[in-house]
Specification:
Blueprint (H helix, E strand, L loop, with lengths): L2 E10 L2 E12 L4 E5 L4 H17 L7 E7 L11 H12 L4 H4 L3 E2 L2 E2 L5 E2 L4 H10 L4 E5 L3 H4 L6 E5 L2 H9 L28 H13 L3 E4 L6 H11 L5 H14 L14 E2 L7 H5 E2 L5 E2 L1 H4 L4 E4 L7 H5 L2 H6 L1 E6 L2 E6 L3 E6 L17 H8 L4 H4 L4 E4 L5 H5 L8 H18 L13 H6 L9 H8 L5 H18 L6 H12 L5
Parallel strand pairs: 3-4, 5-8, 8-9, 10-17, 10-18, 11-14, 14-17
Antiparallel strand pairs: 1-2, 2-4, 6-7, 12-13, 15-16
Helix pairs in contact: 1-2, 7-8, 7-17, 17-20, 20-21
Length: 506
C-alpha cells in the first residue's frame, strides 16, 4: 500500500475543522514533501515524526514521501498533527494495516522518543470530530479527561507511539477512557469578608443580577479589589453548554486549571495594567490566541488601576463588549472568539490615591480631571454602574453591628432576580437585562412615565445621553427584579440614575 490517510483537526479560534492527512509513497530520491499551508511548527513535525518512528522500533521508509493536509486552503498550525502524520506514514509503508488508520481521528504531539504529549485545544477539536460523525478519537493520555467531556465519542488515550502502533496492528487495543467524577471547584471568596461599603456591596449585587458593567472608584484599601473578586461567586454556576464553551477557550489558551478539565464556574481574569493589546483582547505573532477578555467569557474581566492602562488598549474593548465576540484578523487568516464578559474597572480618585477632601492630597483639580480623563468617554458610556467607595471608617472596621451578608445569601437573591428576568424575556433569545436592546426596552417593556420624571429631567439638562437613558432603564429593571416588583417604580429609576451619574468629587 503506497497511499494512506488519517484524520486530524485544525483550529481557527475555538472552532475546529476536520483535516484529512494523506500520505503517498513513490519511487525516487528519498525525501519528504509536506503540502497544505503548514506553519513552521507543522513543517518541523516531519523531523519529530521521523525520530519518533525510529525510536519506537519501526523503520522509516526510504522512499519519496508526499504528505498532503486537506483542505489545502486552510492554514495548519500547531503540533497536534504529529500523531496523525506518523500513523499515515506507517500505514502507507505497510507497518500497520491501512484500513486500521483510515477514518481514525488522531491528536497529539510526538516527542523524539515516541512519547505522545498533551496539546492545546483538544476539547474544541474533539467537538469538531463528533460533529463530523467520527466515532473514535486518539488523544494524549494527558488530554483524556478533557476529551471525555464530549458525549457519544470513544476516547482512546495513547501514552506512546508504540501503543498506537500496537492498537492499529491489533496486538494490543487501546482501552477507552472512562471519565472520572469532576473535582469540586474551589470555594469562591465570600462577600461577608468586605467591611462596610454598603453602596459597593449593593452595586456588585445589581451587577451580578443584571449582567451590568461596573466602575469602582475610591482610595486604596476601600475594598475595590475585594468586591470585584467576589462578583464571580454571586453569578450562577455555568450550565453544561456554557461550561463547554468556556472550557474550549481556556483549552485553546492553555490555561485550564490542573486537575480540572471542566470550567464550571464563571472565570475571573485580572490582567496587569502593563498588558498589551494582544494580551488583553487576543492575537499574537504566531497562532492567534484568546486574550484576557475572551478568557473571561461568561465571567468577569477586572481591570485594576484602569487609568494606568494605555487609553488605546482600553478603547479596543468597546466594540467586543457590545458584540459579545471579537474577531482578530491577520494576513494568513482570522479567528473569532466569544467574549461576553462583565467588565469591572477600578481606579483611584487621583494620582496620589488620596480620597477626595483628604488634607494630605497634593493633587490639583486639574490633575484629578486629567487622571480621570485617561478613561475615554465612549468607554465609560458603556458602564452602567459607577460607584464611589469612601475610606473604611474605624467604626466599620471594629465592627459591633450586624455581620455583613454572605455570598450565599446574596447569590440567592441574584438567582431569583435572574429567573424573573429570564421569564420576562422568554422567547426573545435574551436572558439578562443588560442584553435588551433600547428599542425593545422602550416598546415592549416601557417603564411608566411618572417613574421616569427624574431621568427625563437629566436627559433635558444634557447630563444623560439617550444611550445612557436606556442603560438607566436596564438597571431599573434589575432593581425591580431584585425587589420582587413586576414593573420599576420611581425609586428604582432614581437609584439607577444615581449609580449612572455618580462622579468622584474633584
Amino acid at each position: 500500500m503506497t497511499l494512506a490517510r488519517t484524520w486530524s483537526v485544525g483550529l481557527s479560534g475555538v472552532t475546529g475543522a476536520m483535516v484529512e492527512v494523506e500520505v503517498d509513497m513513490s519511487a525516487g530520491m528519498p525525501g519528504v514533501v509536506l503540502v497544505g499551508l503548514p506553519d513552521a511548527v507543522v513543517r518541523q513535525s516531519v523531523d519529530r515524526v521521523r525520530a519518533a518512528v525510529v525510536n519506537t522500533g519501526a523503520a522509516w521508509p526510504l522512499r519519496r514521501i508526499t504528505i498532503g493536509l486537506s483542505p489545502a486552503s486552510m492554514p495548519k498550525q500547531g503540533s497536534g498533527f504529529d500523531l496523525a502524520l506518523a500513523a499515515a506514514v506507517l500505514a502507507a509503508a505497510g507497518t500497520v494495516p491501512a484500513d486500521a488508520a483510515d477514518g481514525l481521528v488522531l491528536l497529539g504531539e510526538l516527542g523524539l522518543d515516541g512519547s505522545v504529549r498533551a496539546v492545546r485545544g483538544v476539547l474544541p477539536a474533539v467537538l469538531a470530530a463528533a460533529a463530523a460523525g467520527h466515532g473514535a478519537v486518539v488523544v494524549p493520555a494527558g488530554n483524556a479527561e478533557e476529551a471525555a467531556l464530549v458525549h457519544g465519542l470513544e476516547v482512546l488515550p495513547a501514552a506512546t507511539l508504540g501503543d498506537l502502533v500496537a492498537h492499529l496492528s491489533g496486538r494490543a487495543r487501546l482501552s477507552p477512557h472512562v471519565r472520572g467524577p469532576l473535582p469540586a471547584p474551589a470555594p469562591a471568596p465570600d462577600l461577608g469578608d468586605v467591611v462596610g461599603q454598603a453602596a459597593g456591596r449593593r452595586a456588585v449585587e445589581v451587577a451580578a443580577a443584571g449582567g451590568h458593567h461596573l466602575y469602582l472608584t475610591g482610595p486604596p484599601g476601600a475594598g475595590k479589589t475585594m468586591l470585584a473578586e467576589r462578583l464571580p461567586g454571586l453569578l450562577p454556576v455555568l450550565d453544561e453548554r456554557a461550561a463547554l464553551e468556556v472550557t474550549a477557550i481556556h483549552s485553546v489558551a492553555g490555561t485550564l486549571p490542573p486537575g480540572s478539565p471542566l470550567v464550571s464556574r464563571p472565570p475571573f481574569e485580572a490582567p496587569h495594567h502593563s498588558a498589551t493589546m494582544a494580551a488583553l483582547v487576543g492575537g499574537g505573532s504566531g497562532a492567534i490566541r484568546p486574550g484576557a477578555l475572551c478568557r473571561a467569557h461568561r465571567g468577569v474581566l477586572f481591570l485594576d488601576e484602569a487609568p494606568e492602562f494605555p487609553r488605546s488598549t482600553l478603547d479596543t474593548l468597546r466594540q467586543p463588549l457590545e458584540r459579545g465576540a471579537v474577531t482578530i484578523a491577520r494576513a494568513a487568516g482570522s479567528a473569532t472568539f466569544p467574549c461576553r464578559a462583565q467588565l469591572v474597572l477600578a481606579a483611584n480618585p487621583c494620582p496620589c490615591a488620596r480620597a477626595a477632601g483628604d488634607a494630605a492630597c497634593t493633587c490639583s483639580p486639574l490633575e484629578r480631571r486629567r487622571y480621570q480623563a485617561r478613561l475615554s468617554g465612549p468607554l465609560l458610556d458603556r458602564i452602567d454602574l459607577r460607584v464611589e467607595l469612601p475610606p473604611v471608617t474605624r467604626a466599620a472596621w471594629l465592627g459591633g453591628g450586624e455581620p455583613p451578608e454572605s455570598t450565599a445569601r446574596v447569590s440567592a437573591r441574584v438567582a431569583a432576580a435572574r429567573a424573573a428576568a429570564a421569564a420576562r424575556l422568554g422567547g426573545t433569545g435574551l436572558t439578562l437585562n443588560s442584553q435588551v436592546p433600547g428599542r425593545l426596552l422602550r416598546e415592549r417593556w416601557a417603564v411608566p412615565r411618572p417613574a421616569l420624571a427624574l431621568a427625563e429631567r437629566a436627559l433635558d439638562r444634557g447630563v444623560l445621553s439617550v444611550r445612557g437613558l436606556d442603560r438607566v432603564l436596564r438597571v431599573a429593571w434589575t432593581l425591580a427584579d431584585l425587589g420582587g416588583r413586576t414593573v420599576p417604580d420611581g425609586d428604582d429609576v432614581a437609584e439607577a440614575l444615581g449609580m449612572r451619574l455618580q462622579r468622584v468629587a474633584a
